[in-house]
Amino acid sequence: MLTIHLDTDSKTPLYEQIYTNVKRLILQGELNPGDKLPSTRGMAATLDVSRNTVESAYYQLQAEGYIDTAPKSGFYVCELDLTGIGPAALTRVSVPASSGQKTQKNTVSSASASSDTDTQTCDTIEYDFSPFAIDISHFPYSIWKKLSRKALEEDTNRFLLGEADGDMELRQAVCDYVRLSREVHCSPEQIILGAGADYLLQMLALVFRHMEIREITLENPCYKKAAMIFENNGLHLHAGRLDSRGLTIDSIAPETEVVYVTPSHQYPLGIVMPFGRRGELLAWAEQTEHRYIIEDDHDSEFRYKGKPIPALQGMDWHDKVIYLGTFSRAIAPAIRVSYLILPPALLNIYHQYLSHYSCTVSRLDQGILTHFLEEGYFEKHVNRMRKIYRNKHDLVLEQLKPLIRQGILQIQGEHAGLHLVLHLQKGLTESQVIAEAAKQNIKLYGMKKHYLHLPDSACESILLGYSNLTESEITEGIRRLSLILLHLAM
């Protein structure tokens, strides 16, 4: 019998309470692999809540990999590998803040898959569906100006060099925010600030060089710029295979010492790595002393159905996860503030060999961002942008429905991030579609360039970003694109 008690007087939404209780019962072994959960209708009747409330809770549990469905049968508890997962993750019953819930001045962290050479467009392009752009028309200029003045007035020493790892006040603010919003556990001393995720990946590659780490496996397809940085710094790249649950453990090359993943929203396919696969990955890392996982928390704050997926780092009990986040995607590309959270062993090596590097983030920008986080402005901005992006996301899906119904497209990666993946059908190729779209002043971005090695099974696909377009531009751009696809599919 499944026993759940709901507190109707609590500020925590009822669906979150159901999600939290079922998750706890699974992790503590009171619900076993293969156990069938009550139907959404039955659970709703038992708890005296709406069926939509139960469906929301079940959706989140399924998204995180705790339960799954069997056709015409219902919901069942998944088989989970709990090896290497810390007791805190197994017993934790709190949940990350939902899009509408306040979290003591904090919200969800950003990720690093940011820029690409394809963002350079010609003057004739009217509709640029870039997956790398963001909407800066809603940037809080007045607040940023106010905080800039405040940061200047309170400390004139901001024009002097500060701590090499970044100012402690900002590292403390970042530490508090990732703990509350992403369930990341760390101390501010573990945080290294840098001007962009690419710079920090460069520093991390230098750490690996001093550790004589030479082999790294990345998802395939992947964030290609990270692959180039690692390769330029002497690491040998291996292409890991993806399935519907993310990176497959058996595809990690035997000689690999480091794995680079984007588990909360895989870039570019949008796959969410479920709890069980995360446990398998942590178990792989624990097999030898010098195995590590780089978690790039890409676009995790922009999730439009359910709640943000907790970070892999929060499940790690043996200091095997290197966490990478950035504010560039959530605020603006010019806000070049990213951060690494290093396990203690790697932090010691970083300080031993790289302590002579100065922090590359302006101390004035650090001061502004500290206030932006501590005074709750970042949370408000992200919540606002999430609503704006959700409206654009839903509009794109609505406009694409006729093409999906006619079998011309299949969609992947919806309900999160700032782009959709369009898998082309009926013999269409991405190069063909991109070329024809350009004739109609539409800029599209193909999938194939994101592969380390192009497998025979690779789909012909387009990454369709929507964040930097207005709703009217989305409507007209997709209208033109639809005519192109219909003509090519004839």
Could you describe the 3D structure shown?
This protein starts with 13 loop residues before the first helix and ends with a helix. A hairpin with a 6-residue loop joins strand 12 and strand 13. It has 490 residues and is α/β, with parallel strands linked by helices. It is built from 14 helices and 16 strands. Mean pLDDT is 88; it is low at 93-122.
Determine the strand fraction and express it as a percent band: 5-15%
Biggest sheet: strand arrangement: 4-11-10-9-8-5-6-7
Major beta sheet summary: 8 strands, mixed
Which residues sit in consecutive blocks of at least 5 with pLDDT less than 50?
93-122
Instruction: Give the % helix.
Output: 25-40%
Number of helices: 14
C-alpha end-to-end distance: 56 Å
User: What integer value in Å does the Rg equal?
Assistant: 23 Å
Instruction: Find the structural class using helix and strand composition.
Output: alpha/beta
Number of strands: 16
Order of helices and strands: HHHEEHEHHEHEHEEEHEEEHHHEEHEEEH
Provide the residue-averaged pLDDT.
Answer: 88
Q: Given the C-alpha coordinates, what overall shape results?
A: globular
Keywords for this entry:
four-stranded antiparallel beta sheet; globular; eight-stranded mixed beta sheet; single chain; 14 helices; alpha/beta
Task: List the SSEs and their pairings.
Elements: H1 14-27, H2 40-47, H3 51-63, E1 67-70, E2 74-77, H4 87-91, E3 127-128, H5 141-154, H6 168-182, E4 191-194, H7 197-210, E5 215-220, H8 224-232, E6 236-243, E7 246-247, E8 258-261, H9 275-285, E9 292-296, E10 321-326, E11 338-341, H10 344-354, H11 363-374, H12 377-405, E12 409-412, E13 419-424, H13 430-439, E14 442-443, E15 445-446, E16 461-465, H14 471-489
Helix pairs in contact: 1-3, 2-3, 5-11, 6-11, 7-8, 7-10, 12-14
